[in-house]
């Protein structure tokens, strides 16, 4: 699990505040974070001034070592288009394949463009990487 502090502005009233948000989660170590994600409670903020509640859409690395699954979610925003996400994704795969030791099988990767209905999250990039878990542990 990795969290970082950010200064964000409320989309309702504009007041800024410092919040701690998840950049990655490991659901084997912190199973409650999986439930928070599925219930749309992860990376949610309540404004300290107007009490508006909103989700911060930012890249998130979801790791489930027990099931040998990694999901790297990158939201499409005004600043980052779907085409740019796909280009960055392809470049990342090339870099991974270049740095892997020769005795490690390259990852099996699935690119999905869908919605997780209970959260409204769109643009999922799924990586199933059994061999990489051993490499990065």
What's the structural blueprint in terms of helices and strands?
Layout: E1 2-9, E2 16-26, H1 31-38, E3 44-46, E4 53-55, E5 60-64, E6 69-73, H2 82-99, E7 108-111, E8 115-116, E9 121-122, E10 125-128, H3 130-136
Structural class: alpha+beta
Distance N to C terminus:
14 Å
The count of strands amounts to 10
How much of the sequence lies in strands comes to: 25-35%
Q: Biggest sheet: strands, sense, closure?
A: 6 strands, mixed
Q: Return the domain count.
A: 1
Mean pLDDT: 79
How would you summarize what this structure contains?
This protein is 24% helix and 34% strand. The chain has helices at residues 31-38, 82-99, 130-136, and strands at residues 2-9, 16-26, 44-46, 53-55, 60-64, 69-73, 108-111, 115-116, 121-122, 125-128.
What does this structure look like?
With 137 residues, the protein is an alpha+beta fold. The protein has one domain. The chain contains three helices and ten strands.
Sum up the structure in keywords.
137 residues; alpha+beta; two-stranded antiparallel ribbon; 3 helices; disordered C terminus
């Amino acid at each position: 699990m990795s969290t970082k502090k950010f200064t964000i502005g409320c989309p309702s009233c504009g007041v800024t505040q410092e919040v701690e948000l998840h950049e990655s989660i490991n659901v084997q170590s912190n199973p409650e974070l999986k439930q928070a994600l599925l219930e749309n409670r992860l990376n949610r903020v309540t404004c300290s001034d107007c009490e508006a509640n909103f989700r911060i859409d930012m890249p998130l690395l979801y790791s489930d070592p027990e099931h040998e699954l990694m999901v790297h979610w990158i939201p499409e925003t005004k600043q980052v288009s779907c085409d740019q996400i796909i280009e960055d994704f392809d470049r990342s795969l090339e870099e991974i394949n270049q740095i892997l030791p020769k005795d490690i099988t390259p990852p099996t990767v699935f690119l999905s463009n869908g919605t997780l209905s209970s959260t409204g999250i769109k643009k999922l990039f799924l990586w199933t990487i059994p061999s990489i878990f051993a490499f990065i542990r």
